[in-house]
């Protein structure tokens, strides 16, 4: 357990006795590295990533709150990922080591989203598992709704050799075409740009690639997103090298289709577990 600096921002490093390690920025409560015990780095972080007030980090696991994408009036993906969070707690527990980070409303957040809230992210590391729990408490006196996601960038040696399973038979929205479909093939190959929202996923989603396997399970996050920008859009992104679309695949756990309603004083939580 140690404090360090990554991308010019304060970060906490979680370590376990068996050699697992994860690094969490206080900026955005953003997990930027995860090395399971005995395994190499599992997350993709762009070598051009930047962090700072109002800046979102390209890669790792951004926290999306209180709005997914442009599905609402707020800036894209809300504001949680580009604000400073407070490190509330960190240290070893009985079976794992964890860090707890908190974000509360400010004049700046209320200017764009007029609600009082506290968001808390708990990152737990053990062996070959990384668990993240996002909790949201309505600290105001009136109800609000939100959407949320953990926008996980998984590392690939070549995404064209990767396969995704666990989605067979599921309904999805193809965000590139504005159409809806049912998943008819298993496993799913990634051959270029992809942007899909899968609704009400129950089974773990598994990324299988040469020398690499990661399972993503979730509780309280009903939806999953598969996203890769492909060659053309990657070339247009200033914070992503042109060919790095080959080295990543986003498999996100999310609440998108049905916004979460929270009455005054009510709390919601959801979690995802990555297992290598």
Automatic annotation (TrEMBL):
It comes from the Bacteria. Keywords: Isomerase. It catalyses: alpha-D-glucose 6-phosphate = beta-D-glucose 6-phosphate. Belongs to the glucose-6-phosphate 1-epimerase family. InterPro entries: Aldose_1/G6P_1-epimerase, G6P_1-epimerase, Gal_mutarotase_sf_dom, GH-type_carb-bd. GO terms for biological process: carbohydrate metabolic process. It comes from Methylibium petroleiphilum (strain ATCC BAA-1232 / LMG 22953 / PM1). This is Putative glucose-6-phosphate 1-epimerase. GO terms for molecular function: carbohydrate binding; glucose-6-phosphate 1-epimerase activity. One of its GO terms (cellular component) is cytoplasm. It is an enzyme of class 5 (isomerase). The active site is at residues 151, 252.
